[in-house]
Fold each of these.
Amino acid sequence: MIERTRNADAPLDARVHAALVAMRTPASVTHVAAERVAAHAILANAPARRATRRSMLAAAALAIVALSSLAARKLTQHAPPLAIAAVVLPAAPPVTAPALRPVRATGARPIVFELDAPGARAVQVIGDFNDWSRSTSSMQQGSDGRWRITTLLPPGRYVYAFLIDGQRFRRDPQRMPVEDRDFGITGSELVVGEAP
Amino acid sequence: MLQRRALHLEPPHAAASSPVADVLARRARDGDAGAFSALVEHLQPRAVRFATQMTGAAGDDVDDIVQDAWIRTHRALPRYDSGRAFESWYFTILANCCRSLRVRLQRLHLRREPLDDQLRDDTLDPLMATGTRSDVARVHRALATLPAAQRETFLLHYVEEFGYEEIAVITGAGVSACKMRAKRAMDAVRELLREDTSDD
């Protein structure tokens, strides 16, 4: 009985096998096209890093506006000690999104990262949006002692964490711990944009 | 029995990674731009094939996905652990880019047409037998109905020829889950081919 079933399936298996072999045919890519892709990848990274640094300058200006707004809403006054939060500002000002990624991003939004870290000498926000770089997203300490930085992010899902004094890695306890698949680092999840 | 063995649907190679890619990746990581170009040329045909079949995108959309994956790969290259097969490391990033595209499109409420409508005839070899051509379209149609995780595992195993252990690393799922996903996807493919044949 089993043998008969196997025999009955043999033509079907043959067709699946033939289809799989056909699907394994590699796409046609010319040497020139591959060279262009490689060159673009190499070139895109250097400007991207410069753009990130430029965005930090823009972020500093935005942070002043954001802090005024936050102070008006008394958000900082009610923040619990040691609370860590990434605040998404409701409205996106008409600024150009930094070239963080060559994706078809629409509607980059200013994101304020906040951290209360008493005694810290330096704090950075690190995440997949800046390739977990320790040098591109230094936070500034406000007069209230909290550390903040504002950055523009296109809609999407991000993984981030804070680095205190270049040594202490801290996830946001108020957010879901997730792993950045590209880098294998576990951080906190931030979703920018409308929920799916 | 011999016939049965010849028709076995498991991919011929348990692992798809090649030492060529590992050597090129190590050189590229050490700053050899020529090695990075060679690496792209070595893997690009497979990358385009996977992105096309995984997302149903074509033309510029596929180019964008693969380009994004290479940019991210180049950025992360200094952290590449040469103890790991480069191809599975790269496919981790590529698969993530494919997933991100779908999530982004869903978030923007831009639902894509079914995969089989996206896979244009000109992506297939014109010399392919007509029957096989139809069956490839049927396989794509079956895959389009599956959850993304099953489709991804099916393509990684049966088309990209990665072993289950490597797929587990690429997808972050367990080995058993990967085997189950591949089996369910294969069952769906076989079922659709069987039904389509009976409809003819």
Amino acid sequence: MTTIVYVPRDSSALSLGAHQVAKNVQAEAAKRGLDVKVVRNGSRGMFWLETMVEVVTPKGRVAYGPVMPKDVSSLFDADFINAGAHPLNLGLTDEIEWLKKQERLTFARVGITDPVSVEDYLAHDGYQGLKNALKLSAADIVKEVTDSGLRGRGGAAFPTGIKWNTVLNAPADQKYIVCNADEGDSGTYSDRMIMEGDPLVLVEGMTIAGLAVGANQGYIYLRSEYPDALVTLNEAIANAYKAGYLGANICGSGKQFDLEVRRAAGAYVCGEETSLLESLEGKRGIVRFKPPLPAIEGLFGKPTVVNNVISLATVPIVLDKGGKYYQDFGMGRSRGTLPIQLAGNVKQCGLVEKAFGVTLRELLYDFGGGSASGKPIRAVQVGGPLGSYLPESQFDTPLDYEKFTEIWAVLGHGGIVAFDESVDMAKMARYAFEFCAIESCGKCTPCRIGSTRGVEVMDKIIEGKDHAKNMELVRDLSDTMLNGSLCALGGMTPYPVLSAINHFPEDFGLKKGQVA
Amino acid sequence: MPLLHAIQDDLGYVPEGSYPSIAKALNLSVAEVHGVVTFYHHFRTHAPGRHILQICRAESCQAMGSEALEAHVKKTLGVDYHETTKDGAITLEAVYCLGNCACSPSIMIDEQVCGRVDTVRINEIIAEAKGA
């Protein structure tokens, strides 16, 4: 009988040696004359246990981790293909607390299936959403998405259904679906995990979006820093074409949808939707004025849906189980679940998909297990490089778009980066300006010039030169950037800067509790 | 952009000498081609070393000590960012997030991401790159 062994092909697992682990498993099995088939899956998202190897047993999948390439022969010695005892044995994967406590909707299949196999996808409830969508009118698909309460997971949290409705009602001979896979925020990797772990759910979501608004062409704009995701996506798309789920006649419905991956080229600002469209058109990624909205005049001047990977990858479950089912998760106006990414100085980093309402403290301590260094967590940055820094006193804030707005913070794309007490917040504020200066597209003055001046002012503050005057200046500059920038890059750089000053004044040469 | 990627994938950079032919093929001015190539961090206009080493400078990696790693690499290689070692083996670049934030600090050598990199590991990576 063939034993199936899963070894992830997720690039974080690869960064810890998963390819070598897979090779060693195959070599050892051959050497010992065992009938073992290695399947490369996505990651379950428990990165402190990567490379996590799973073996299929009659009782279920049994996990071993973290497996280093050198551990493989000892796993065979311990008869791991029959769930044998070994110091790295983690028991049944489904019984691991960390996974059991989650509500995985968008990530339902990630780490479980072979990402590029249409057959495996179908065996795990894949393409149920598309099947339902093909029976509905375009307006009814949009209604289902609107009813689900799904909001843009890229960060702006704009209701997906309303965006789709605008495109549906915009008359045009050609419309486009564009997937924003330019996941540039530090501390985020959920888009990558979907594209490497379950790319077909994204393909299905984009196909449904095409049916909903009347678009027959889709593009995935993928950041160039993700070479592994490119390979996986292209394999999955080719397989979907072969199986008749993409192309001129989707599932024999007579409807067409074509899909192509386009590589970005390392510009953070291209995660902003209008500069992304410029870049897709082959130009420099300079931000456009809005209006017109991309939903009216988007790619090549045509009505275009621009959605983040997670938003589109969530659409299939909405169409499968219904808008009401999805809407029942969450709190307030934040409906459904959020794939949260724990990063930075956290002991147990990884992907946690939970309904909105979970608190930072639960995530950092119950899931994360505290800091990796063992020192107290002093600050967390939520929502990428343009998100606010939060102090320990705000760790009980529930994850909810509106609750975060109340404390002048953002959820963004759900990335949480933790810092222990060794962090110097003045340096982090300086870095925020520096990053903005490097990545500014240069179109608007507050961002282009303001960011460079910001670095200079922060340098003076750190040196202690004209301290009071420069503290006032940094606030004044931040105010200009907040109110005068064209897009979120310049407009939100003051979030990390001012939150750092407000919550950690002692790092800026001020007394604790003193407001500059 | 797909054209520029193809050129860089083949040659390792986009030589300025190729601008006129690109411009002609796409019905653009040479200035427009220059504008696009230089806008994006990914494209380079000069030949790199045999290997490209990118160090992540973003927040998550900073939280796990990437600053010390950067300093160590710059000292070991004797180059700053965007420079190539004298033996032509390694070009050093900064990168802002490799999406490997659960295993910080991260680096990328050519197209391979490496996580939880300490000075011992980076020395191995450098030695291997110099030897190959």
